[in-house]
Amino acid sequence: MLLKAGAGPVLEPDLLFEKYNTTPLGVAARLGNMKLFLKLWQHVGFEISQLDGCLIDTAVYGQPSAIGVLLDLCRENWPMKTKGLALNRAAENWKVDNIRFLLSRCFFDEDMLDSALTQVPPKVCVRDPTESELSAQSQPIKLLMTAGSDPSASLRYLSRPLLTQAAAHKHLHECLEALLDNGADPNAVVNPQGQTALHYLAVKEQKEVQYWPKEALARPEEAREAAFRTFFRFNASILQQDVFGNTPFHFAAFTSDLKALQLMLSNLPTELERKAALMLRNHQGESLLHFSSSGAQIDIVEYLLSQEVGISVDEVTLRTWTPFLSALAPVSTTLRLVKIKTAQLLVDHDANPTVITHGGWTALHCLALKHDRNEDAFIDTLVSDGVLVDSRARFASDGFDLDLPWRRRDIRGISYGCSELRYLEDPKLWGRVSDLTPLHVAARTGALTAARALLKHGADPTAIDSGGNSPAKLAGDSKYHRCAHPIENRDKMISLLTEAGGSYQAV
């Protein structure tokens, strides 16, 4: 009667909290009442654009037989996108029989299969999963990987690799096991930087490394250790290098503690291999000591400097940076006090505080790179140790606002260390500014405390860089201030420098 009166089988309810937030046709599909569904269907016809939700609803709530009826009704008229969404929703809800049936009846390209695989791990878990839920997660993974889905391709659909997502949380470890059991390569490259899932897992906390998803949950140490051991059972390599030569071992030295580093080291079978791993460098010549110093991992620094390992405290990179300078170069979330403590530890082990790189960089340039309140006492120490307050350095950058390559989504991955120093990587691309004193750098970055300390020790506020800029002129250039530090610091910095005798005018 309702149908004869003009009731619409494909109208959705107005209220989202309705028990069945779908069309009447979709309700019949969800319930598997195919007699009712076919009756409603007669009043709709084959205008498929209005019926896509029926196949998706059936894939989630119905049985394979109901899916078969729908596929038969439209033969080849179901859009590929609709069939892909149906597979996605079935995978998300662990409907093993429906996944198996859809795979047997429909063609899905690689992208669709990869997308469906990313839906299997639950997004949120407020309790420990039951045994039946754990089993239900592993079966769809086996079906989809047998059909050709690739876990390493998941970065197109997730903010991090699927293997890493599964490793990051204890309640997903059954998924991790299933992925590896069914052929996922633990050493597969998962991003354009050439990094593997183990590179991601080696990072202890998301906030310490750029481009780690903010929505990620915390990773308890026990779960992280269990994930490491699972990867190692499937021969994951701690020594596989990315395009920069960085290994998971390097990233662990930068962000983790000594226990994690030694766990990774214990995976190597011989003492000779373990000793070689501790001496490994990336393509820039950075060692584990550079990484651990940069990340202020004091326990690792002490271990690497111990007689057991014996890394040289003043070993240099290709650009002649020492671990001491790496310790002082700022990292966004590492407290400067901890960085300075690390630098002091290196000095206590006879690191040279007066080191100057081929580019002219000194410890004072590094301290001037970031606005902070904790530099003045250490600047006093460095000057008394003989670091030149007006030493000149080269800086291959003209501004913060360029479309920097490591910020682009198409080459995203794990980056570490001081982003300012990456300007040194390609001076031909970004141009080169030279003759920068530590005071120029402090003015450019808004480091008021450092600027005051440098002026106290006789820094020249009238010094001119290769572009004709005084420190005050750099302080007033808005392109350096938009995202770098509070705008009110600009006026304070200009006043500080001009009162000391500097000029705001370019030469």
TrEMBL record:
Domain of life where this protein originates: Eukaryota
A Pfam family it matches: Ank_5
Ranges of the ANK repeats in the UniProt entry: 434-466
Signal peptide segment: none
InterPro entries: Ankyrin_rpt, Ankyrin_rpt-contain_sf
Alphabetical list of PROSITE patterns matching this protein: ANK_REP_REGION, ANK_REPEAT
Record's keyword annotation contains Electron transport: no
Keywords per UniProt: ANK repeat, Repeat
Protein name (database record): Ankyrin
Organism: Fusarium venenatum
